[in-house]
Amino acid sequence: MPRYKAVISYDGTNYAGFQVQNNAHTIQEAIEKTLKRLNGGKPITIHPSGRTDSGVHAKGQVIHFDYPHKREAEKFRFALDTQTPDDICFLSVEEVEETFHARYLAKEKIYHYHLDIGHTRDPFKRLYSAHYRYDLDLGIMRQAAKDIEGEHDFSVFCATGSSVEDKTRNVYEVIIEEVSETELRFIFRGNGFLYKMVRMLVGTLLKIGNGQLPVDAIKIALENQDKKMTGPTAHPEGLFLMNVSYD
Amino acid sequence: MPRYKAVISYDGTNYAGFQVQNNAHTIQEAIEKTLKRLNGGKPITIHPSGRTDSGVHAKGQVIHFDYPHKREAEKFRFALDTQTPDDICFLSVEEVEETFHARYLAKEKIYHYHLDIGHTRDPFKRLYSAHYRYDLDLGIMRQAAKDIEGEHDFSVFCATGSSVEDKTRNVYEVIIEEVSETELRFIFRGNGFLYKMVRMLVGTLLKIGNGQLPVDAIKIALENQDKKMTGPTAHPEGLFLMNVSYD
């Protein structure tokens, strides 16, 4: 059966996350419903590079699925793009080898986290960034961000509820950019991220930047798996899965 | 009684426009509800520079209202900003003379209209721009836009349902900007605009740019009040009231 890879973008505001669950709308449900209709009523299961949580967005999520018919890629993309809801977009669709797997073969992921640091909250950013109204020392945050980089056991930055056994991940780069006077962008690039890891790292960086945790809090948290050296989980609406790379 | 002027910004997505009406949430209702609560349960009426329609946004709407108590401006702004819903923001509040009037004294208004011209619709722009997927000749549109500028009777670009008698307006400037490869921004600056006038002008410019109306359609429409030379009313979600000026 032909296997297809698709790159999708979605506004997570109105969804209870990616993965199918009872009594809640999810991205997976919306896409599988469309695929089922295109496939004459027979169900198709999709597999993402990883789940995203309720309210989290994606500009470059990757999924794969097996579909019993050969379809011309651009026509297939157009049908999926126009027949899924307006807040889900199919950027590309291509036929791939049967061995392709969106999750197992992912080599690198990039996440962005948007923070609105304006004095008054911008109504047009409220769904796409978290608001933070307190003082932040960017120099200290950038120094602390260096401690995230490299290969570490990130168990202390993994929310309960994860079934993953090996919690070692390699974070290649953490960048904190000043997009404008009222907006910060955190960029995380690594071989993978644990359940809520990016949001827990952002929450910790904010607590460090505001002086409520020492600059070496992340270093200590990782070395001693010390929860007291971590901050709260930052709000979901600031988080975007930007890109997933494969060999 | 002290009179206050406020500059507000709002995401119109979840409102049935500015003006209070039965059985629908409006911007006016949300703000007046907050003012009533701050005023110990006694109602306060607000007056905008002009109404905005269902789904239309504002980044610089101006309102005025009379409030029986003297309030320190920044504290009053903060109270209104935090107690109104998240999609309404108070950018500034100041006490003004009793003769100030947000509508009668407005000298100039600026509207922006955002158009998403990407091949695939961007989920993150869907609430804040209209999507147009057909060819557009920008050169021809810019030439046609010149015919809007100046003092004209704009009756043919006014939707039915308006109670305004004098339909002469002076449009100082119409600019069409390429914000990026996938986004256009139309800027309208004038002494005032009729009911749905900006959206009807955008709809007409799009029809001209797509070759469905001649380049001089607006000129003919204005000279002969000829409805056949106008396009449809463009969707509300692309429209932003950006600024209102006073002497």
Question: Mind explaining what this structure looks like?
Answer:
- The structure is a homodimer of 247-residue chains.
- The first copy, chain A, contains 5 helices and 10 strands.
- Chain A is an alpha+beta fold.
- Chain A folds into 2 domains: 3-96, Pseudouridine synthase I, catalytic domain, N-terminal subdomain (Alpha-Beta Plaits, 2-Layer Sandwich); 109-245, Pseudouridine synthase I, catalytic domain, C-terminal subdomain (Alpha-Beta Plaits, 2-Layer Sandwich).
- In chain A, strands 1, 2, 3, 4, 5, 6, 7, 8, 9 and 10 form a 10-stranded mixed beta sheet that branches.
- In chain A, a hairpin with an 8-residue loop joins strand 2 (46-48) and strand 3 (57-66).
- In chain A, helix 3 crosses helix 4.
- The two termini of chain A are 23 Å apart.
- The mean pLDDT of chain A is 96.
Q: Any idea what the shape of chain A is?
A: globular
The chain-level structural class of chain A is alpha+beta
The first-level CATH class of the largest domain in chain A is given as Alpha Beta
Radius of gyration of chain A: 19 Å
Distance between the terminal alpha carbons of chain A, to the nearest Å?
A: 23 Å
Strand content of chain A: 25-35%
SSE succession of chain A: EHEEHEEEHEEEHHE
Q: What's the number of extended β-strand segments of chain A? A: 10
How large is the count of helical segments of chain A? 5
- What is the name of the CATH topology of the largest domain in chain A? Alpha-Beta Plaits
Q: Main sheet of chain A, how many strands, which sense, barrel?
A: 10 strands, mixed
- State the share of residues found in helices of chain A, binned by percent: 10-25%
GO molecular function, one term (chains A, B): tRNA pseudouridine(38-40) synthase activity
Subunit structure (chains A, B): Homodimer.
Enzyme class (chains A, B): isomerase
Catalytic activity (chains A, B): uridine(38/39/40) in tRNA = pseudouridine(38/39/40) in tRNA
